[in-house]
Amino acid sequence: MEDVTREFLDTNQPLIRLAVALLLGALIGIERGWVAREQRAGLRIAGVRTHALVGLLGGIAALLSASVSAWAFPLIFVAVAATALVAWQARLGDPPDFSITGLIGLLLTFCFGAVAVGVDLAVATACAVATALILDNKREIHGLLNRLQAHELDAGLKLLVISVVMLPLLPNQALGPGGVINPYQLWWMVVLVASVSFVGYFAIRVGGTEKGILFTSLFAGLSSSTALTLHFARQSRLAPAHGPLLAAGILLACGTMFPRILLYAAVISPGLLSSLWLPISLMALTLYLPSLLIWRRHHRQGLVESPALIRNPLELRLALLFGALLALIMLLGEWLRSALGDAGIYLLATTSGLADVDAITLSLTRMSLETIAGQTAVLGIILAAATNNLVKAGLAGLLGTRDIGWRVAGPMLASLLIGLAAALAMRLAG
């Protein structure tokens, strides 16, 4: 039966591809026809039938170009474009319509038909569906554009610069002492951190702080839980009655740092997950559970309205500084590893965690692929994360009220002890 089906498909491949080209044209035509459904007959330039036929014509043009003449496709494409231009020129009369989106959609429909027949069905289908979605969401896209701020657009363009422009230009080879510096992979980690921060910023931007401390803190952990800790600690002095809620928010933000660590490991060195997921999950739960308990007990006091806690983190200068810090940590890690062994790695992780956990996490994750053992990287990451959270607990106690300091410090200390115990137990068991 399978042989018969395969033979049928192979024999009728051109007809099947032409049918797909027709259906893809009809898909875009349905969307275009729906938009223009209220226009009276004669004013609609291209609807379901026209787009379906144009898709089919694109498929036929691809067949003719492959079997008759290579000039068939470009000549038919020019003819379709000329016909469409004449129709759109006539449409500029009454009422005037200066949009060329419909014209571009029609020409794309022709190309999708050709791609379905001459190149790849999956590519043609994916592009046609994406085109239909873009055409159908005009109002939503324009609404997002109107809400977009200048610094956010600038940040998005900078993200594109450091990812799709700079990244491919860097050499993908080992350089430096011990070959620990790979410019391509180093910059790819910078792009990874910048992307996570960018997503976290827009999660807060879309949700808004009016939804309360709980929602804001959860997403703030994607970007900068330190910034949130500083702000909430200062706010606790202005509104002591809301101290418990602010403490819950700090614990949530700091706990969200741990899933981010697992994400880095999953992307860079999946082999670490088997040793990393248990202690990291326990550390996260040790912060999440007290936070939820505090919230359940005190949420009736009301939510604190706060301004945006996290500014756009994607500035090229900061990305370059992070890359330099990452390279420095990797070089120091190689030197300490050769001089002191695992003890040097643990010392580096503890001191680095005082200021930042992302750089040392990415460094150790990357080093676990070549220069250090996986268990050493796991323990170093846990030391860095625990140290970083203890620093934030100290900031909360110094800048905030005594109440918020104690509420934050207890779970932070418990998280450190549980994480270290789990990591050491897994190390001994392994």
UniProtKB/TrEMBL annotation:
InterPro entries, alphabetized: DUF4010 (IPR025105), MgtC_SapB_SrpB_YhiD_N (IPR049177)
Domain of life: Bacteria
One Pfam family, short name: MgtC
Domain DUF4010 stretches: 191-400
Regions crossing the membrane: 15-34, 70-90, 102-135, 155-174, 186-206, 212-233, 245-268, 274-295, 316-333, 345-365, 377-398, 404-426
Domain MgtC/SapB/SrpB/YhiD N-terminal as annotated: residue spans: 18-142
Keyword entries, A-Z: Membrane, Transmembrane, Transmembrane helix
Protein name: DUF4010 domain-containing protein
UniProt lineage: Bacteria, Pseudomonadati, Pseudomonadota, Gammaproteobacteria, Oceanospirillales
